[in-house]
């Protein structure tokens, strides 16, 4: 997009924030930053990258967990009132992965005029382009916007040492033929939830590949047995457990549905152990 368009969209977003700053949960926001190509002054930014920093009181923590359980991203409660559903905005909440190059636009207590002034103080730089993404491997292509920098670094570093192998799958939608499995999944998620759709696709994949569903670990829970060599999770919520699961629990593979959606493609990273000793010794941070 042209820079003039990006600036106009940001002006509208700041006006929305100013108008709704007393609403729940918008009133929890402490700071709003822009980073990426817009912050660097690019004449034709690819998109508009935003960081929102907000307080996390108990009331919000409970609401956010309820939304996640229902298969919804709680960040949408901050994003949509300010940015609508425009795909031009890529919004991160309480993320520090790009903070070092971010420009503060608004902080709690600022007037609209102050925020707009900061926006227009960012100089245009025709030589600035889109910054290359850090810690990329082929499996991340097209998915990196949903994979945090820390996760990319962990996975890419482990791939480079041979500790793990990673490839990309596109999971197919599949009906769950087993009534007991279907009942189990419906006990965890509503049928309209993107997580239910992802879980059905994972269960179908396991069934096709001869995996006993009841000897698996699905999104933070053992389905039945404690010995679970097959693992799956969604939205990279449990990736901190990958080294332990693939080294101490006889782990065979980890399926990570990167961005479950109601209708879009179910892109999945398939992580398999390589050199388990190197995986144990890896500096896997979270």
UniProtKB/TrEMBL annotation:
<dbReference type="InterPro" id="IPR043519">
    <property type="entry name" value="NT_sf"/>
</dbReference>
<dbReference type="InterPro" id="IPR002934">
    <property type="entry name" value="Polymerase_NTP_transf_dom"/>
</dbReference>
<protein>
    <submittedName>
        <fullName>Nucleotidyltransferase domain-containing protein</fullName>
    </submittedName>
</protein>
<dbReference type="GO" id="GO:0016779">
    <property type="term" value="F:nucleotidyltransferase activity"/>
</dbReference>
<dbReference type="Pfam" id="PF01909">
    <property type="entry name" value="NTP_transf_2"/>
</dbReference>
<feature type="domain" description="Polymerase nucleotidyl transferase">
    <location>
        <begin position="25"/>
        <end position="82"/>
    </location>
</feature>
């Amino acid at each position: 997009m042209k820079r003039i368009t990006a600036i106009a969209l940001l002006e509208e977003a700041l006006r929305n924030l100013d108008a709704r700053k007393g609403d729940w949960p918008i009133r929890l926001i402490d700071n709003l930053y822009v980073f990426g190509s817009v912050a660097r002054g690019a004449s034709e930014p690819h998109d508009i990258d935003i960081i929102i920093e907000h307080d996390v009181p108990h009331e919000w923590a409970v609401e956010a967990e309820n939304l996640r359980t229902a298969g919804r991203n709680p960040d949408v409660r901050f994003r949509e009132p300010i940015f609508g559903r425009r795909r031009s905005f890529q919004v991160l909440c309480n993320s520090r992965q790009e903070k070092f190059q971010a420009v503060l636009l608004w902080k709690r207590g600022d007037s609209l005029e102050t925020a707009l002034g900061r926006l227009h103080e960012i100089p245009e730089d025709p030589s600035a382009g889109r910054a290359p993404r850090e810690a990329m491997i082929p499996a991340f292509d097209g998915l990196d916007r949903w994979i945090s920098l820390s996760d990319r670094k962990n996975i890419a570093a482990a791939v480079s040492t041979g500790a793990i192998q990673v490839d990309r799958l596109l999971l197919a939608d599949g009906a769950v033929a087993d009534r007991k499995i279907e009942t189990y999944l419906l006990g965890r998620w509503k049928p309209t939830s993107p997580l239910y759709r992802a879980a059905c696709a994972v269960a179908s994949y396991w069934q096709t590949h001869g995996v006993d569903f009841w000897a698996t670990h699905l999104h933070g829970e053992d389905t039945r047995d404690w010995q679970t060599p097959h693992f799956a999770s969604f939205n990279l919520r449990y990736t901190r457990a990958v080294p332990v699961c693939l080294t101490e629990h006889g782990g065979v593979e980890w399926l990570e549905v990167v961005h479950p959606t109601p209708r879009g493609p179910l892109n999945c990273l398939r992580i398999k152990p390589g050199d388990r000793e190197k995986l144990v010794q890896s500096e896997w941070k979270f």
